[in-house]
Amino acid sequence: MSTAPATHGPVVTTRQGRVALILADNPPVNALAQPVREGLLRAVQEAAADPAVDALAIACEGRTFFAGAEIREFGKPPVPPGLGEVLDAIEACPKPVVAAIHGTALGGGFELALACHARIADAKAAVGLPEVKLGIIPGAGGTQRVPRLAGPVAALEMIASGRHVRAEEARRLGLIDAVAESDLRAEAVELARSLVGRPPRRTGELPVPAFDPAAFDAAAAAVAAKARSQVSPIRAIEAVRLTAGGAGIREGLAAERAIFRELVGSDQAKALRYAFFSEREVQRVPHLQGVAPRQVDVVGVIGAGTMGAGIAVALLDAGLRVVVTETSIEAVGAGWDRISGLYGRAMKSGRIDQAKRDERLSRLSVTDDFAELAACDLVIEAAFEDMAVKQEIFGRLGSVARPGATLATNTSYLDVDAIGRASGRPEDVIGLHFFSPANIMRLVEVVEGAASAKDAVATGVALAKRMGKLPVTCGVCDGFVGNRILATWRQQTDFALEDGALPQEVDAALERYGFAMGPFAVADLAGLDIGWARRKRLAPTRDPGRRYGGTVADRLCAMGRFGQKTGAGYYRYVDGKRQVDPEVTRLVEDVSAELGRERRPFDPNAMVRHVRAAMVNEGAKILAEGVVPRALDIDMVLLHGYGFPAWRGGPMFEADAIGLATILADMRELHALSGPGWEPAPLLVELAEKGGTFAGYSRTPG
Ligand code: 3HC
């Protein structure tokens, strides 16, 4: 006997024999918005009460199982039913309920699956509790039910990292019961049928499996160390510890909910929600809307150094055919080794297998014949960072590349317009600024030259997305968005050394602020020689009226201390371990004396305020110049390429949150200490005086 489907808003129930198949459809990702929660609750209640139904299966239409709570509802008054109420109804249902997972079951979506009595997932599916990345903890039982299935140690790792767990691993951990072989929904219905007549296995009623308390404490300590000042992972430990300690499900759920409620309104959660939506918004470039990118199948890379090799790997990983050119047969061999070496490392770490490596390398050719670039739809030049070198290459590329091919330079500082002119076809030329290591780092600055055709820029954006990267489009200026801001705030840390600080004090202060690594430790890792060469190059044109700040770095380089690779830089390295070096302390103090700067007791808070003000001030100039149209563009560059703590949202977001009048006061203080060149940016002054914000700013065209 067939019955008509029952519809409750976005939720429809059909009958498969005596199994009710409940299907939700809320594009694009089936977020558990209020109408979905209400529809699910009614569908479950009806099926539970229907004598013609023996079991239930819950599945989703579209590209994924529920991707979690509707994030846009956070911070607004809750409209019932709450997710907890829906999940309680599912878990309490006297008939077996099976979750059929495809795509990604995340956050509240996975919590819903955990409240079901069994879970089956598509082989390609993944599950996860990414709430900590939104500054919250799971709020619908994740911290209580995952430990009951996978044990508290695995649960803590999963919840504190927010990582996606693939179906097969989830099965091994006990988080799902089966991986579907071919037809997920049919197999879910079959599983539900097979459970009829048995008492439902309610996750909330299961005992926590035996575990090693010392392993839990070690995992908790590792989470706390990694979290630094981010609150949500620490609070997640608290919630999981409660279950581990034997709390009942009701007590655990209430405690989890209380932490969730407390965190959801916190500044960190607000900043992380902003970061989440901005990460998506930044890819919608206002003036490129509706511009179709050019077709790209084959990509050329000029230069197989560290950067070129990384870019080639990222392109191969994205399924493209790649032609890499080098200048000699020896360099071709070294380039091939570098690229296959990167795959060797990926294999060692288990990221790819031999078959994948072979397939990817089969799409690569490395050649010393520049003319082979004629076959490419887009060419990325990753040669030495020198204008004359790049102009010479683009001169040749302009005639070799086929008409309509897009020509990109991976410069990090140089003028893309001047490089474009050298090609004779500047409309085809853009910048694609990758970050090292290019096969890992997500950010790409897509640089639009004054003459770049819109579809060439759109091609750069589309290619970066295809490579799984985050493209941020910007105009031409020295250092573009990221390096320009970096250069500014790094000068403040250099000044701090001259005024009384030591490298380890500056690093510790900025790590407390949230950077993964302090700037001097980063400098040692990257190598001090590149900056030294640049400072020497710029020396003849440096304004003598401006404070310099590079003396300590220059002295270190003159001593051959180029950082970690030479065993010494701002620190010394013993067996690869970073140590404070008394010789550097002496050197820093000597430099202060020579420059006639009084060394005052280091005030970490003042330095952090100055670093932030310097970033924001430069950001204000970048906005006013129209290098990017929105403050969120700047924030996304800093978050994804420069280790700025995501839970602060970005410097521009944080400045708005603190209040621009305060930032302006910090900037004035900084100006007094740092002298000419450090005047507050007119836009900062204007917005601060009017009570405006960067988020509300939009530049008048022209
Ligand atoms: N709420 C609201 N909107 C969401 C959303 C959510 N949970 N997840 C995604 N979206 C929106 C995105 O903003 C985007 O909107 P746009 O098209 O207007 O920009 C659209 O859905 C598509 O998202 P993506 O561009 O990210 O699509 P992808 O296919 O690349 O990725 C995804 C899909 C993996 C599901 C990814 O969107 C994602 O990771 N989403 C967030 C998942 C998450 O954090 N869930 C936990 C929420 S908190 C929670 O559940 C609390 C609970 O414990 C009580």
UniProtKB/TrEMBL annotation:
Gene3D superfamilies according to UniProt: 1.10.1040.50, 2-enoyl-CoA Hydratase, Chain A, domain 1 (3.90.226.10), NAD(P)-binding Rossmann-like Domain (3.40.50.720)
SUPFAM superfamilies: 6-phosphogluconate dehydrogenase C-terminal domain-like (SSF48179), ClpP/crotonase (SSF52096), NAD(P)-binding Rossmann-fold domains (SSF51735)
Chief location of this protein within or outside the cell: other
Keyword NADP: no
Catalytic activity line of the entry: a (3S)-3-hydroxyacyl-CoA + NAD(+) = a 3-oxoacyl-CoA + NADH + H(+)
Signal peptide: none
Domain called 3-hydroxyacyl-CoA dehydrogenase NAD binding: residue spans: 299-474
Domain 3-hydroxyacyl-CoA dehydrogenase C-terminal, residue spans: 479-573
InterPro entries (UniProt xref): 3-OHacyl-CoA_DH_NAD-bd (IPR006176), 3HC_DH_C (IPR006108), 6-PGluconate_DH-like_C_sf (IPR008927), ClpP/crotonase-like_dom_sf (IPR029045), Enoyl-CoA_hyd/isom_CS (IPR018376), Enoyl-CoA_hydra/iso (IPR001753), NAD(P)-bd_dom_sf (IPR036291)
One GO term (biological process): fatty acid metabolic process
Superkingdom, natural source: Bacteria
Family annotation (Pfam families): 3HCDH, 3HCDH_N, ECH_1
Keyword field: Fatty acid metabolism, Isomerase, Lipid degradation, Lipid metabolism, Lyase, Multifunctional enzyme, NAD, Oxidoreductase, Peroxisome
A Gene Ontology molecular function term of the record: isomerase activity
Compartment list: Peroxisome
Pathway: Lipid metabolism; fatty acid beta-oxidation
Coiled coil location: none
UniProt similarity note: Belongs to the enoyl-CoA hydratase/isomerase family. In the N-terminal section; belongs to the enoyl-CoA hydratase/isomerase family.
Listed PANTHER family: 3-HYDROXYACYL-COA DEHYROGENASE (PTHR23309)
Protein known as: 3-hydroxyacyl-CoA dehydrogenase NAD-binding domain-containing protein
Organism: Alsobacter sp. KACC 23698
